[in-house]
Amino acid sequence: MKEKIVEILTDLRPEFDFTEDVDFIEEGMLDSFDIVSLVDELETNFGIKIQGIDVIPENFSTLDKIETLLKKSGAA
Amino acid sequence: MNLKFKNKRIAGILTILPKRVVAFEEEMGNYNFPEKKSLRLKKIMGYNTHRIAAEGQCSSDFCIHGLQYLFDNGMLQKDEIDALLFVSQSPDYFMPPTSNLIQGHFGLKHDMICMDINQGCAGFELGLMQAFMLLEQESINKVVLMNADVLSPKVSIHDRNRNPLFGDAAAITIVEKTNDDEDIYVAVKMDGTGAKSLMIPAGGFRMPCSEETAIEHEDEAGNFRSLNNLVMQGDDVFNFVQREVPPMIQDLLERAHLTADDIDWYMFHQPNKFMLNKLADAIGVAYDKMPSNIVENFGNASGVTVPTCISFNLGEKLEQESYQMCLAGFGVGLTWAAIIMKVGNLSFNRIIEY
């Protein structure tokens, strides 16, 4: 799952290395409109719906957190 | 705050749009972002075309054009107007009230109430609430509610996160007494601690416009704007809407003894397609019951989006049919409000251009 997430993130912001162990939000690697695009790509690629109330920057700050959110949203 | 009214109806809706149509692609070069990224957002957010007022056109000009249209076509008589409400964040002047200017323009009777209300995204619901309150009075039988905003001069053309979303427009809604005693359920909530999430920092008495406030700065996302421009903390507003609006709607449905399926149309404020689809998911409503096509066609004109949504999506159909509607607005203030009421058999429901 993480490999696919990295692939999607890299397509969104090719200038950054999303395999690094950093906070994507604090480092300025994802802004709020990147998150909107990311949600759309994750929903399409994993066939899920992410609840609006979960679309908060904290849930997209690391690969682990994105994976946790995807599982919560029904991704296998 | 829960309110309930009876014996009031919407009698007609006229939406007035600027003639000028601006396409997202025309403005893409103004933004500091790669084309691919902007086009991706176009699809998700619903950016497409928006209506922009001509230079010098004010909110009141659209209202005056609309009222003249109604008078000329015999759809409204001057002497039957008992109150004129102007709901806007773009008045002609700090003083006098724009509603008084409009009254003076038409030489309307003195025995009436003119009132300006500073409200934005929930301005249609707040305006209807005020109209219903006025109609509780024996001497008031017809209220003309004008929602109007020309905010495009206050939005930086170099701000991709905001500029493509906004549009200019006005709507005139006639609200009157009726013998029909269907209940109208209203919910209004406010949270001023979030007031600065959506604001125009300079231009008022607190921070007058100056050479310094006109200097554009780059924000953390790469957008350029000055303190004279509208700024929106997108994350904060999005989270507030997703957190607060669904429970307000559920509570209102319970008060009205209705289920989500009993509502024919959810005519909501139109900030962007993504936010509306997430709201529809949270409330458990099919997307086709909650139209989200106003930003892509006309732009978000603040409190005008709900009447525009009704006029654009239902048009003349609403002159013959009646539907159970849930109207909702949310944003600047922070303010969020919703109304459940029957809307239909209108004398008119149309869009004109100016």
> What fold name stands as the CATH topology of chain A?
Non-ribosomal Peptide Synthetase Peptidyl Carrier Protein, Chain A
The DSSP helix count of chain A reads 3
Taking Cα atoms only, what radius of gyration of chain A do you get, to the nearest Å? 11 Å
- Biggest interface and residues each: A-B, 16 and 23 residues
Count of individual beta strands of chain A: 0
Describe the structure.
- The complex is a heterodimer of chains A (76) and B (354).
- With 76 residues, chain A is mostly helical.
- Chain A has one domain: Orthogonal Bundle (Non-ribosomal Peptide Synthetase Peptidyl Carrier Protein, Chain A).
- Helix content of chain A is 47%, strand content 0%.
- Chain A is built from three helices and no strands.
- In chain A, helix 1 crosses helix 2.
- The longest helix of chain A is centred in the middle third of the chain and has 15 residues, at 32-46.
- Chain A starts with a helix and ends with a helix.
- The model of chain A has no long low-confidence stretch (mean pLDDT 91).
- Chain B is α/β, with parallel strands linked by helices.
- Chain B has one domain: Thiolase/Chalcone synthase (Peroxisomal Thiolase, Chain A, domain 1, 3-Layer(aba) Sandwich), CATH 3.40.47.10.
- Chain B has helices at 24-27, 35-45, 59-72, 98-106, 123-135, 234-255, 273-283, 294-297, 305-314, 317-320, and strands spanning 2-5, 8-17, 21-23, 49-51, 83-87, 113-117, 142-149, 169-177, 184-190, 198-199, 217-218, 224-225, 231-232, 265-268, 322-331, 335-344, 348-353.
- In chain B, the strands form five sheets. In chain B, strands 6-5-7-8-2-17 form a six-stranded mixed beta sheet, with helices on both faces. Chain B has a five-stranded mixed beta sheet with strand order 1-9-16-15-14, with helices on both faces. Chain B has a two-stranded antiparallel sheet with strand order 3-4.
- Chain B starts with a strand and ends with a strand.
- The chains are: A mainly alpha (76), B alpha/beta (354).
- The interface between A and B is medium-sized, with 16 and 23 residues.
